[in-house]
Amino acid sequence: MNCIHERGNQREKDRERAQARSGGKGKQKDDGLTPEQRRERDAKALQEKAAKKAAQAAGGSNAGGGGGGKK
């Protein structure tokens, strides 16, 4: 009978191990922001990311990674 109890507790043990591995973070959706503030923050992050990518594309166009090599 002791084996049955150990197996029945396995799911709970696995949850504890997984939580310990992830640093005990779990799901934390509550960041203290309203949905509107969250949208603004996300939009700003996306704009910064797009600007960085555009700058990288403009600066990296002559980086020599193309197929126009000499033979």
TrEMBL record:
InterPro entries: SERF-like_N (IPR007513), SERF1/2-like (IPR040211). Residues 1-19, 27-51 have a biased composition (Basic and acidic residues). Residues 7-39 form the Small EDRK-rich factor-like N-terminal domain. It comes from Crotalaria pallida (Smooth rattlebox). Residues 61-71 have a biased composition (Gly residues). It holds the Pfam family SERF-like_N. Belongs to the SERF family. This is Small EDRK-rich factor-like N-terminal domain-containing protein. It comes from the Eukaryota. Residues 1-71 are annotated as: Disordered. Coiled coil: none annotated.
